[in-house]
Amino acid sequence: MAESKDYYKILGVSKEANDDELKRAYRKLAKKYHPDANPDNKAEAEAKFKEVNEAYSVLSDKQKRAQYDRFGSNFEQAGYGSGAYGNYSGFGGFDFSGFGGGIDIDLDDILGSVFGGGFGSSTKRQGPTKGADLRYNMNITFEEAAFGVKREITIARHEACDVCHGSGAKPGTKPVTCDKCGGKGKVQTTQNTIMGTFSTVKVCDKCNGEGKVIPTPCDKCNGKGNVKKTKKIQVDVPAGIDNGQAISYRGEGDIGKKGGPNGDLFVVVNVAKHKIFTRRGFDILCELSVPFTKLTLGGTISVPTLEGNVEFNIPEGTQSGTVFKLKDKGIQNINSKSKGNLEFTVNVEIPKRLNDKQREILREFANNMGEEVNVKNIKKKLKL
Known about the structure:
Radius of gyration: 40 Å
Oligomer: single chain
Shape: flat
Structural class: alpha+beta
Largest sheet: 4 strands, mixed
């Protein structure tokens, strides 16, 4: 009796592995050891591939797995099982019945990378195709984003050739049927492998899947059927647009293929930074420096907005870092007529230079508040 094989070890799974774990392990190893994926070492790969299939055919069958767990890989030769996993006895007569029946494996998933483009799939000639979309980056100011702006831009796009009218053929001639694919746009090849004979369908490399070739190309477009031209577009940037947002213009992109629609144009705005304001949604934010005397005693300050300065009364005893809000002084909502707010933070402004009288007043104020100050420095300044 032959030496018992460790199917769990072959698949690299534990004895508690469930069906999904077995399937994942099998797919990974089947791709790895497929002989056609190992042209430099086919013999060893074939042996490994056969071993992996044998292990999976047993472990994926509940009845066979139970018998294997009890008696080992020789359970069938010993008469404990019925049927055979011997469908894998040779690649020349490889039986795929297990894949369609007891073994639920997607052959296209396993063999797609080996045979290219899918196992047993067909390639259809493309019909009308939409043209390529275009992107245009537009730089605008913070104020233009807030209030909107109209701009004229110039784009370069592919349009139908005005000589051949998109056919690609020189006037007086026309495209002819491809002699390689017979006008189908695809060719079929047959490949003999250790697993049998396979047919694959690929795009015809002579006509690129078009089914027709152009023997005498148009002199202007060189057979492409399109030429690059410039066009002016009026762009209406709406109020409230934000940095990175795009305005779309349908049909202003490249020409479509085979009668397909044109692509679209996307104008992406880049909003410049403002020297005072920053943006948070539709609110705008800024910081203002206010003299400590005004924060302490209260008073009127001038607050900048996008529409000019406005007067604002600071209440007595305002602390540095306090945030105030001016309603409807922000940016217009791009989807409605409502506006955001202006929020400004007041920061205390400390004078850098004081005269003798100012220092004496502040010293007396500090004394009244019970605060310690640099008296020595004050006396020096006052020459006491």
